[in-house]
Each structure stands twice: as structure tokens, then as C-alpha cells.
Design brief:
The complex is a heterodimer. In chain A, 24% of the residues lie in helices and 34% in strands. Chain A is built from 3 helices and 7 strands, in the order βααββββββα. In chain A, β3 and β4 form a beta hairpin. In chain B, 20% of the residues lie in helices and 34% in strands. The chains are: A alpha+beta, B alpha/beta.
């Protein structure tokens, strides 16, 4: 079993458009957070290379490219699975992010499920000393902020 | 925190809250917007939305938080759902999702058509749709009650 954080939000767009915004415009809408730092540096620009095996990266101000993960599943316009490793994760900690785009009438329900974050060891900087329930709640809020950013991008 | 929170939200306790998420969606069309599970797969927190409202579905997380199914079916509060169309179809959907219909849809003196249902853990839900305009005088005449606050 793994821990799981699931959040969902409806956006006024087709699944195709929402998938496109998520994967191709992530550099513009991504909202970095000090709690879930991907690298110890100032936040950079996120990018996802299309297709399975594509790199999920963050390009820092100094030009360095940090690989957060890879595209594990690329099924436009319905589903995307990314691996997710922050620089502060211990070497054996792997987490996964599944994003789904489901049509509901003329809207799309975008959901994110982030699995495995409970593995952060007690002393890990990725945990900030939080017990699991609080850590996972904060992670849910982090992803809700990302979903709001996507919603505001598709309907400015 | 969600992107938005209603000023009043019911948090409802279940022995099996993950099953409740499924049958509340099937019966009422509630939409899951947040779910947190620990590494044992146990629900930590969840929220569902319905229109401009929300509800939290939780477990029996303390000695004082219990489902009716742990209390011989007793309810200490019920949640009311107000819809704007086809309450009869709504009731049929709840029945199909395994809810026990305690009172079939019936038009009340105050102008709402209402039904009452019990979910698989014994929570009682009322659902109503306004179907006729009734004045305070008409309602008072029909019931003999003194009604305050009726606009």
C-alpha cells in the first residue's frame, strides 16, 4: 500500500485543451512552493517532453536542468503519469503523479493523484518535521494550487 | 484548504468512508474533490462538492465520532439537499444506489416536494425541490402553525 493524495477541480475546457495546458504550458502556470521544493535553488521553469519516457524537468536560472522525473504514461487527452523525485528525497524514495482529464458536460474534471509521499523519512527535508497526515494535507493543498492555476490559465 | 470553502460544511462519519464516497457519488452526484489516504490505504480526509456546497466524509476518528451503524441506527443530525429539478428522478437514483427510501417524494404544505432516504450506514438524508409558491398566510392556514421568518 502507498499513501495517496487526490485532488480534483473542474475547468472550462475540453480534455484536449486541458491536457495541452498541463503538458505544454506548465512553464507558465506552475506555482512553486517553499514546502515542496524540487531543488534547493530558486524555482526554475518546468517542462514536460511529450511522449512516454519524456523528461519532466525544471530549468534553473543558472541554466542547469534538474530532472524531476519522466513521463511514465502518455495517453492524451485522458491520462498522464509522471515520476516525481525532489532533490531532497533519499535515493530510494520514488513517488508518482497521475493526472486525469475527464469530460463532464462541456467542462473537464482535472484530477491529480500523488502516491508515495509518506516514504519521506522523519529527518528528511522533504517532510519539514510534519507527521504524515499534515504532510499529505499540505501536499493536497499544493496540488490544489496547481489545479487553480490551470483553471485560471484555461479561462483567463 | 480548498480553492473555496462554504461557510458551513457538514462533516459526516462513516465506518467505511471510502465506500461512502462511491455511493454518495452514485446516489446524489456528489463529486470527489479531495482525498487523502495513508500508507495503509486508510482515509485521512476527504471532501466532496455538490453545486456551491461541500461535504466532508470522514471515518470514526475519535470515541465521540461515530456512524449511525455503530449507534444502533441513531442520527443526531441529518443533511438536507435542495435541488432545482426532478426530485422524483433524484429519488430513483438514490434507490438504485442502495439507499433505503424512508419516505417517497411527496409535496409538502410549504411547497417543496421532498423525500427522505437512509444510506447503507444509516445516515438519514432529506432531499427537496421547490415545486409551488406558497405564501405564509396559506401555510399558516393549512397547518395552524404560527410561522416567523417566511419572506
Amino acid at each position: 500500500m502507498t499513501s495517496k493524495v487526490y485532488v480534483a477541480l473542474r475547468v472550462k475546457a475540453s480534455p484536449q485543451r486541458a491536457f495541452e495546458v498541463f503538458t505544454q504550458e506548465i512553464g507558465a502556470w506552475w506555482r512553486p512552493s517553499a514546502l515542496f521544493q524540487t531543488t534547493p535553488r530558486a524555482p526554475g521553469v518546468m517542462a514536460i517532453e511529450p511522449g512516454e519516457g519524456g523528461r519532466f524537468t525544471e530549468t534553473l536560472a543558472n541554466g542547469k536542468v534538474f530532472e524531476i522525473g519522466r513521463v511514465l504514461i502518455w495517453e492524451p487527452p485522458g491520462r498522464l503519469v509522471l515520476s516525481w523525485r525532489q532533490a531532497n528525497f533519499p535515493p530510494d524514495m520514488h513517488t508518482e503523479v497521475e493526472v486525469k482529464f475527464e469530460a463532464v458536460g462541456d467542462e473537464t474534471r482535472v484530477s491529480v493523484e500523488h502516491r508515495g509521499f509518506h516514504q519521506a523519512p522523519a529527518e528528511s527535508a522533504a517532510r519539514h518535521g510534519f507527521p504524515n497526515a499534515l504532510l499529505l494535507t499540505k501536499l493536497a493543498e499544493y496540488w490544489q494550487a496547481q489545479l487553480r492555476a490551470i483553471r485560471d490559465t484555461v479561462t483567463p | 484548504m480548498s480553492d473555496w470553502r462554504a461557510p458551513l460544511i457538514s462533516a459526516v462519519c462513516y465506518r467505511d468512508p471510502k465506500a461512502a464516497l462511491r455511493y454518495l457519488e452514485a446516489a446524489f452526484g456528489f463529486e470527489l474533490t479531495m482525498l487523502i489516504e495513508d500508507e495503509q490505504g486508510e482515509l485521512v480526509h476527504s471532501e466532496m462538492r455538490f453545486g456551491n456546497a461541500a461535504i466532508m466524509i470522514g471515518n470514526e476518528w475519535s470515541e465521540d465520532h461515530k456512524s449511525p451503524s455503530s449507534l444502533g441506527g441513531k442520527n443526531t443530525q441529518t443533511v438536507h439537499i435542495q435541488i432545482d429539478s426532478d426530485v422524483d428522478a433524484h429519488c430513483a437514483r438514490a434507490r438504485a444506489a442502495g439507499f433505503e427510501i424512508m419516505m417517497e417524494p411527496a409535496t409538502q404544505f410549504y411547497g417543496d416536494r421532498t423525500y427522505r432516504a437512509r444510506d447503507p450506514e444509516g445516515h438519514i438524508w432529506t432531499v427537496a425541490q421547490s415545486v409551488q409558491a406558497v405564501t405564509r398566510e396559506e401555510a399558516e392556514a393549512a397547518t395552524g402553525l404560527k410561522i416567523t421568518g417566511w419572506v
